């Protein structure tokens, strides 16, 4: 079954690449070109990464596995005079299957970002900016191998950032720095079981001495704090691009100075217009997120820890 699936995927990759190359050869249009009749610029990216390893009578041993990751990114940017409105939708979903182990999720992201900026003149790179960010996931998350009890769900959590500040952005938008002294961070946990446990920083449920529920946990938490975000993208050598995203947030009311960190590093290696290799690392530290560990088959909640996700993928990318 695994070999058949791999064969189908490889056939799809080859066919898609050939078809896309034919389209581009026939219609040599820059997909990122701005419509001269409109103030809107659009950028669309769809990618699919696949990795597979198989063992047959392999003396050193090993476990056969196959992984797939679907990635999409859609941008809509409005520019007129001193105004700029940027919108971005990012979606990712990945799965992994190993022999003898059930299908497992490897990545799950739904993210929408919007920023509206105004500058005093057309020369300045500084904008007065209002930003909105929304993050959640598509399906339940588990602390494997335990797949009976979910540790996260769609909209549990969901994060909303809304703030005002100043942003420095180059003309190519390859270097950006955003400072906001007034940013509201809203955390939603719309699953009552997870809310009762106090996951992701919401107020947990209250029980009496007999274990009876007195008050259910709250499904939301609102914070007001300071936000700093930075973005840097550069082609370090030909066809090799590095991209950095950093976000630092600290709440004024609850332990100001305790900083939530979100850092995403990506290295993009371009083989041709459709085939690319991506190497990435994502670091997250949030004092409100408690780690889960399985000890002797029992899932235990421990303190906050640095979260790390490392990615290495090879696949196709289609721009339009």
Automatic annotation (TrEMBL):
Keywords: Signal
A Pfam entry, by short name: DUF3078
InterPro entries the record matches: DUF3078 (IPR021428)
Signal sequence range: 1-20
Protein's UniProt name: DUF3078 domain-containing protein
Organism: Flavobacterium muglaense
